[in-house]
Amino acid sequence: MTTWDTPGKYLELPAIWGRSQNKALAWIEEKIMNKLEGWKERLLNQAGKEILIKAVIQAMPSYIMNVIKLPKSFCRRICAKVARFWWAASGKERGIHWKKWESITESKSNGGLGFKDLENQNLAYLAKQAWRVLKNPNAIWVQTLKSIYFPDGNFWTASGKKGASWIWRSLL
Q: Domain containing 163: what range?
């Protein structure tokens, strides 16, 4: 019988999660940092940075945000790294942050740049999943959740019982 030292990944997610959520998500943070460091700030103008941030960096955690609620500290760290990249003049120098991150995440029509606020985006994705639980009660994955977490009730009365999965706790 063969055994695994490291179980690997399935759909870019670790097959086994540890107890520490931040530790479990470290691989996303590392991938984002590798992308940011791969592009030198001096090679991209502001328009190029905007495209890189919107199309690559903010899209990387999208799949996992559909499944689990990211810790606020994790979202803040990612946003801080993106802001540092956005405002940096050249190389590793720190740039002056001329506007708050909250104002940059506003839509362009409201004077922002339209960058995603990861916390709000994460909640929107999870609300979509909760809606799918309510609208597709016959889906296999919904029936599985129902049999485990709310066998005698409905989604609205379900609670996060002790030992519930990170995915289930994220939906509540």
A: 136-171
